[in-house]
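User: Hi! I'm working on a homework problem where we have to compare a predicted structure to a textbook description. Could you give me the structure for the chain below?
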Amino acid sequence: MRATLTALLVATTAVLACASSPTAPSPTQTAVGMGAVETGFTPIFNGRDLTGWIGAVEGYEVKDGAIVCKAGQGGTLYTRASYRNFVVRLEFRLTPAGNNGLAIRYPGSGDPAYAGMTELQVLDDTDPKYASLDPRQAHGSAYGMVASTRGHLRPVGEWNAQEVTVTGSMIKVVLNGTTILDTDLATVTTFMADTPHPGRDRTEGHFGLAGHNDPVVFRNIRIRELP
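Assistant: Happy to help. Predicted structure tokens:
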């Protein structure tokens, strides 16, 4: 009898511990990607098809749970939904000299680097092809406006994790755990090639991918809207 009671007590304690464990997902948490659990984030790519995305849908395809820019194609693929302030998290994998971008507050037409608030570069800036790159074109930069800190990309072919926070005119980019851009676009007064960025002050728009012919891959894209 004592052994039975002891076993029952151990089992009950284990159940209670599991229920109160901080690692146990609550009903308000959403599982995304590779088993991660994040409060408040909503997947904007279902891993199967391009439902919820519009624009250059013919320039992309879904393979192995990821969005792939078709070689020699691309264009701006963007969400049906529009966003003001948000945090977006995603993973991407580059090809040698691979070039793509994240369209921020994109209006739905035009070049996202100029018509949108900005295009954040997604680029293998380690490739010799880009030896004379303007710093404002490096990976994570607000294209043509503000340079990021280089040197935090993983080797080509490996997955990188990136987080982008957009609040008002502020943009912050964290790559593989390191902040590589933290800037206020409203303070920018000089532009690459003296080319103006008329969309810089946009307060709302779509989130998208700005493909440039290279088969760059994206997965686990999720977003949390901010006040």
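For your comparison, note the following. The chain is about 10% helix and 40% strand. The helical segments are 2-20. Good luck with the assignment!
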